[in-house]
Amino acid sequence: MRGRSHLPRKILKTTTGILLSGLLLWTAVYASDAGDRRKQEERLQNAGTVLTEVLNIPDNIPQDLLDRAKCVVVIPSVVKAAFIVGGTYGRGAMVCRSGEGFTGSWGAPVMMGVEGGSVGLQLGGEATDFVILIMNDRGASSILSSKVKIGADISAAAGPVGRTAEADTDAYMRAEMLTYSRARGLFAGISLEGTTLRPEGEANEALYGRKIDAREIVRGPEPKAPEAAERLISRLDKASPNRKSE
After folding, report:
1. Helix, strand, coil: what percent of the chain each, to 5?
2. Which H helix or E strand runs over 222?
3. What gap in Å lies between CA 87 and CA 64, rounded to an integer?
4. Alpha-helix runs per DSSP H in 157-200
5. For the chain, first and last CA: distance in Å?
6. Which of 36, 70, 121, 158 has the smallest CB count inside 10 Å?
7. Residue 94 has pLDDT above 90, yes or no
């Protein structure tokens, strides 16, 4: 009888332990998700800072090219990866013009990653910021669909600098992507051939709170851009509010 009298207490203790363990597990998962979301928000804020600084350089991206761009990718602080000889590793964001044909206003950001390839961090061998212009529908659609290898899956050229620079040469007009870098205060076109660029599914899921395809983010009207992207998008709106027709 004594053993039977303690049975409800044991069951209660066991049940309480299970509930507590479940609560702790849920809290840990939630904290991890929140941490991931904050990490992506920090990346967006860093991308906004880099783009603002780049566009404040007197001889930056030619206005004509920026006005023709379908998407802009900003990868802050790309570093040489120790585990890839001569390679690189970086994370940032891409903002595209909304609507069919990428002709509308600048939309919600897609989290992006760049890695591999020997891009020759000639500008000091230190952390380097990349800014990439996606110039046509094929280039934008390719990047939104899957990982692309620059120079193989998608044509690219080191972009010219200077707001009024001649930007209508065949090399620039044919390229699907124009690439730039900044390190030690020097901003210049750079070749990124052999480097891969891809949307980051897990990062986008962390940022938007659900599994979401990169194309869905760009096409809209949902999801809305997070507050952390305000500086990045507003700077693009100010620099190039309307896309220039071909």
Report:
1. 40, 25, 35
2. none
3. 32
4. 170-174
5. 90
6. 36
7. yes
Q: Which residue from 171, 154, 168, 152 is spatially nearest to 73, judged by alpha carbons?
A: 154
**Rounded to 5 degrees, what angle do the CA atoms 156, 182, 86 make?**
70
- Given a contact cutoff of 8 angstroms between Cβ atoms, the answer to whether 161 and 172 are in contact is no
Peptide linkage before 223 cis (omega within 30 of 0): yes
Q: Which of 26, 16, 44, 24 is nearest to 236 (CA)?
A: 44
**67, 213 in Cβ contact below 8 A?**
no
Domain ranges in the chain are 54-239
State how far the Cα of 186 lies from the Cα of 7, in Å rounded to an integer. 74
C-beta of residue 112 within 8 angstroms of C-beta of residue 91: yes
Strand pairing of 196-199 and 110-115?
antiparallel
pTM over 0.70: yes
Q: Encoding tokens for residue 60?
A: 């930056």
Which tokens go with 96? 């595209």
Q: What are the two backbone dihedrals, phi and then psi, of residue 209, each rounded to the nearest 5 degrees?
A: 80, 10
